[in-house]
Protein 1
Amino acid sequence: MQALARVHLIQQDIIRDQIREFLLDREARGLSPHTITWYDQQLGHLRAFLLGQGISSVEEVTPAILRAFLRDFAQSHNPGGTHGAYRAAHAFFTWWSQEYETPNPIARVAAPKVAERVLDPVNPDHLKAMLATCERRTLIGERDKALMLFMLDSGCRRAELLALNIRDVDLRTGTVMVMHGKGDKPRMTFVGPKTLKALVAYLRHRPEAADSDPLWLDERGHRLSATALRAILVRRAKLAGVPAPTPHQFRRAFALAALRNGCDLISLQRLMGHSDLSVLRCYLAQTEADLSAAHRRASPVDALLDGRR
């Protein structure tokens, strides 16, 4: 029994060390701690499955084993979660095969299908009602108004929004320098004149603020936290009598509005800081459905044969 336990421990150490080597590579590439943790968790599921199958090293993994893992994983996770496990495994085995010039077992494993999501943006009428609750000429009211407009206009992620300092926004041109984007990749996005006007009105209540100070402060003068941001949205929604939106619904609304107004996918990818186009295709599919509905309403043939002009 002790000998079997020692063999099992050796197996654990081999697989764990191989995964750790991959995680160190991701860290060296500048991926965020959040992304590293995600990879660690996802590959932990894979490691547990492999150990249960008596697999002692990555080199012993076959396409059949990986398909079995995904089938097993899907029994207790939704399609989106299963697709996440596949993406993590794909990144790991692709890196390993390139690093050590070995066959890639996941190359012949098809990605799990994920049903196309219906993206739920912030409701425009609800947002107008929330904006109407913001008290004029008060620090909190002007902050909340500027904050909601900024979220909608910039398309920033929640963490990016909260990490902004005053100097990151050019109050003349509307250029926003996102210095701490996903993967710590800086990028530019923009806000329009109405958002800038609201932002200037908010900053007038902070005459002593330095360029290096946080852009968004809570009531105690500290950098706004994710919890405080959520509380602001809940409070404004309650005052307006509407459901509270999430910060990500503002980002969705930004993406959908950009596509509906003619923004191309590559430009939108750069504005939103996506590393690939796969996420944006969900937005594109939704706008294409809008176009189809618009055509049905405005079909020249239907108008001709129905007697409409």
Note: The first strand starts at residue 175 and ends at 178.
Protein 2
Amino acid sequence: IDLPDAYLSVIEAIRAGGFANKARVTIKWVTSDDCRTAAGAAEQLGDVDAICIPGGFGERGVDGKVGAIRYARENKVPLLGLCLGLQCIVIEAARSLAEIPDANSTEFDAATSHPVISTMEEQLAYVEGAGDLGGTMRLGLYPAKLAEGSLVREAYAGEPYVEERHRHR
């Protein structure tokens, strides 16, 4: 990992969680590119108790993140996906569980025939390079309409609308 300080808040949160639960935390840094194949993921992740796929930008390393996620799912290793990491979990689930082999994000493949993650309409120009990306993240509390009959609506005790904090492009 070239810049571990870029993940400082994630590291501190994981360590604080370990402390609060009287669990010793040892972090093993793994380059996602080493997890692109099943054998590579098994070699890199075979000795861990849990996996955290942190945030990031762009498509570099996405295939390896998806490989690590597949390893976690198939081997029942606890998994936490943050930001891009959670998006990669959705992509892996769509490909493996919903049997949509070309499922992808429009951020990585604008022409994907099965977009399971889409860039927000108001962000398209920035992502496509027509604007300055600086300061364009959607931050803070935003309303979300929960689809009737959905698991997420059930998780929110049937509430039709909720407000949650998002950091998204």
Note: The chain has six helices and six strands.
Protein 3
Amino acid sequence: MAIINPLQPFRHHPSLYIGLAFSIAIGLAASRAVPPVSAVLIGWCAGIILYIALVLIHFGRANLDSIRARARELESGKWIILLVTSTAALASLAAIVMEVGDAKGTAHAAGSAALGATTVFCSWSFVHVIFAQHYAHSYWLEGKGIDFPGCKQPDYWEFLYFAFTIGMTAQVSDVTTQGPAIRRAVLAHSLLSFVFNTAILALGVNLGAGLLGN
């Protein structure tokens, strides 16, 4: 009987490992000067910023052949990656609530609010970058599923546009989805985007009320 390695889906994601290591290092360094929750959020933001930078560099260097090869490498664990990264991003929202709540009415309220807003933006961007890669790899691996007007061979940037459009508007704009698999992914992405957009609105209301209260 074959032994299933739970880390198997992650072995082709060096950018995630680099971002995680950087996140831990920055978080530990920050913990010497700020409370634990603040240190976690600072490390989280630092790791995401580095990860997205590495991914965008990869996007700029990739061609259609490398995208297809990458899709084959990541086929087995693509849904696990989506689940784990999305769960981590949602967990960051809980940490933001703790951060802003603990600092409310203190001298650190403004700094905590800024950290909270930065974390929401980083987590929001992280989710869409992850989904952009998922869409790209699914497209080239499973036989299309997304129709980009005027573009027969879309690269990563087309899928990044698609993912961020869903994230900002909860719709697919001028792009057409085809097939149940891609629609399920878009549904999950839209629901997750709704949670983040609601969190952004709630954070804004909370910060506004706090400023008026002060």
Note: The chain has seven helices and two strands.
